[in-house]
Amino acid sequence: MLKKVTSFSDGSGKLSRKAQAALSFELKKKFRLKDVLQIVDIPESSYHYHIKQMKEENPDQNLEECIQSIFEDHDGNYGYRRIHLELKNRNLKVNHKKVQRIMKKLGLKGNKFTRKSRKYSSYKGTIGTVAKNLINRRFHTNVCQQKITTAITEFKCSDGKLYFNPFMDMFNSEILSYGISSHPTLDLVIEPLEDTLEIVKNSKYRTTIRSDQGWHYQHNKWVKKLKENKVFQSMSRTGNCLDNSPMENFLD
């Protein structure tokens, strides 16, 4: 308790009303608020006033509390990707990078991944359209959004598997969009494709999207969307990871 009080002190030995409110807010997680306010010696009205002020100073207060709650509800097993997915399920739209920043700020780190990741193979032979290898390891480009690569990666978690499908701009390795799901469904690639197409629709040069020959990328819905948006399709050769070095390096 003494250490907790000291951490809120300005060094003078006294606590400001704001510091008293912050300390009370921390202590109420373990003790009744009524008892805490009496011990800290702050009127309840002052406590609620300063807590409200602090929340207004931090526009992400509610989001931080929600992330903290999800993390604790799952015993610290969730990393930022799974928490982002859970927020999405709760109709809370927030960028995955922001979730990652907040978790870092709060000191939340998922701890139950049994392995980092492994390449996921969705290849089922020729079941649709197999495109030519247009990029053919010519990964370098001086043009933004001219060459984009995508691939599905599987993460093994303590309570199942998670599938991640990012879309990377080869110009600067920026992740333009991504899909994440507990199952490798067609939507895992179609939804982030639609987001990517929205981003590149005003590009000066025609875009080429590279993928492997997995069934998702041979699917008529995928091929049709690329054609409708005048985007070139490029596929790497089967069993050749060097054809997708930029994405392989990112996922490693």
TrEMBL record:
Superkingdom of the organism of origin: Bacteria
Gene3D superfamilies reported for this sequence: Ribonuclease H-like superfamily/Ribonuclease H
InterPro entries: HTH-like_dom (IPR025948), Integrase_cat-core (IPR001584), RNaseH-like_sf (IPR012337), RNaseH_sf (IPR036397), Transpos_IS3 (IPR048020), Transposase_IS3/IS150/IS904 (IPR050900)
Domain Integrase catalytic: 146-241
Domain HTH-like: 60-111
PANTHER family: TRANSPOSASE INSF FOR INSERTION SEQUENCE IS3B-RELATED, TRANSPOSASE INSO FOR INSERTION SEQUENCE ELEMENT IS911B-RELATED
Function according to Swiss-Prot or TrEMBL: Involved in the transposition of the insertion sequence.
Descriptive protein name: IS3 family transposase
